[in-house]
Input
Amino acid sequence: MSGHSKWATIKHKKGAQDKARGKLDTIERAVKRGTGELEGVRYEAISYEGYAPSGVAVIVECLSDNRNRTGADIRNVFTKNGGSMAEPGAVSWQFHRKGVVILPKSVGEDDLMLVALDAGAEDLEDQGDTWQLTSDPGDLTALRAALDEAGIKFDTADVTMLATNVVPLSSEADARNVLRLIDALEDHDDVQNVYANFDIPDAVLELVEA
Output
């Protein structure tokens, strides 16, 4: 699992993603405007790329009714937190869009392999305290359905961007610097998803959480 995925899972367990639920208002307004239910500004999906401290690659997916404002805001967040914006395509080549399912270790590996591989899963990885299944994005729905039918519980199942290589953050200071930028980006109202290729060892993550 990328460090960002692990961090996001921890934040989810702590209930720190409540702010993200507020973004549903933004999404609902965008849907209504897109279907003609609301007149006015049109929302569009925009992606930005950049670097966090320590050379960590970052992709930011936004939903905005004002491209210029959002672009300036995102650039400002990067700059204020020790990062920098990059040209489109500069970091996206380091990521692949995949279906990702996170499951508790209480699920047996053999049982999981039997169900998952028949349903289109490409890989099963041991992430320490969880399993991570990956699939083609188009196979995620079938994979979820197969797990449900088999009575196999999972924590999350989403289409996400997985990094092809990771930047290890071996010190608490480096980890804090990167996470400060990631959190600031996620707090922006227009930001829907943030993907990054950092990896934080468990021992360092425990220090950051403390």
